[in-house]
Fold:
Amino acid sequence: MIDILVAGGGPAGLAAAIRAATAGLEAVVVEPRPLPVDKACGEGIMPSGVAALRALGVTPAGSTLRGIRYVEGPRRAEAVFRGGPGLGVRRTALHAALHRRATELGVRVVTGRAGEVRQDDDSVTTAGLTARWLVAADGLHSPLRRSLGLERPRTSPRRYGLRRHYRIAPWTDFVEVHWSREGEAYVTPVGEELVGVAVLSRHRRSHEQHLTAFPALARTLRGLEAGPVRGAGPLRRTVSAPGAGRVLLAGDAAGYVDALTGEGIALAVATASVAVDCLAAGRPEAYPARWKRLTRRHRLLTGALLGAAGHPATAGLIVPAAHRLPALFGAAVRALQ
Structure:
């Protein structure tokens, strides 16, 4: 019998499979899309995510990121990462690196879609495969999370993300977060002549329309579009528990606050690794508490920043406050890295 079946071949799913294989367990990944998979993503990996990938033996090529810079009009604030750099990397390049490592370790990836889940005291079955355990890493809109009755109703305002690449040499080795009362634009260096620009907002508009809220940035990027626009959302997802029976949720499937702080990849790899560690130790019941501890800081800080950004009275104070209080801004960045 398969030890760990993984539903979803994105970063969280492949990270889970790699972790399982390095622990001597047989892991099989079920993924319906051809690899590598592209999707809307800010494409900046925080230092903790870079370290977590390295621990799995995954070292994708990309652009070194020195820190985070907030920009609003003439005001700016920046903080340098401590303990190592981050990495700007194309989503497809990251996915290809994870897939190569999984293949090296003998992980089998099968084409299919996890649907109905049947489980008993000793096994779990989905997509025609039976395993001792199932890690559901099937993304933000996780069908498995819904089918298991673990998704809570959405109560917060909806936020959406769009990403597009631009053929221009990066002008900084920081991730720039441009703020407006309409939303945020994240500029991430991902190559010698390429940047990714992700916009987050409550408004459903085109990428070009969103950029009008950032006139200086829009002027810099005009006419340099490279590739299609990719979108995601609504973003926020909450769960009643990160697992049920012989199924553990990992990555975005286990709940998602917002892309505002750029921790998606780091948390995907971390939660997937912890889920597998609990299974390998024979202690699946330990996962909910470990998941809460692992994600608590992200959930609290991202939620607080998101709340401030969502109110007209406070949205315009974020960058001025970061500018006036650089030590506090640096501490917040380091807390999230």
